C-alpha cells in the first residue's frame, strides 16, 4: 500500500496524524506529511483510518 497527501488540498486539520501517528506526521506549519511512501503491512489499517477521516479528502491510498 502507498499513501500520498495532496499538499494543495490539505488544510492542516490534523486528523490523519492524530488518528494514525505511526503513518502520518505534520510539518512545521501543521500540515500532514507521510512517514512512509510504502506503508508496512502491519500499519495499513492505521493508514486507512487516517485517510478516511480527512475532511478534505487530501489523502489517496493505492492498494498493492
Question: Explain this structure to me?
Answer:
The protein is an alpha+beta fold and 64 residues long. The chain has one domain: Alpha-Beta Plaits, CATH 3.30.70.20. Helices cover 22% and strands 22% of the residues. The chain is built from two helices and four strands, in the order βαββαβ. It has helices at residues 15-19, 44-52, and strands spanning 2-5, 24-26, 32-34, 59-62. It has a two-stranded antiparallel ribbon. Strand 2 (24-26) and strand 3 (32-34) form a beta hairpin. The longest helix has 9 residues, at 44-52. It is globular. 25% of the residues are buried.
Give a quick precis of the structure:
The protein is an alpha+beta fold. It has two helices and four strands, in the order βαββαβ.
Amino acid at each position: 500500500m502507498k499513501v500520498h497527501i495532496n499538499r494543495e488540498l490539505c488544510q492542516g486539520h490534523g486528523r490523519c496524524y492524530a488518528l494514525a501517528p505511526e503513518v502520518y506526521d505534520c510539518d512545521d506549519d501543521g500540515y500532514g506529511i507521510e512517514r512512509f511512501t510504502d506503508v508496512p503491512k502491519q500499519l495499513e489499517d492505521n493508514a486507512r483510518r487516517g485517510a478516511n477521516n480527512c475532511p478534505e479528502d487530501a489523502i489517496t491510498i493505492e492498494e498493492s
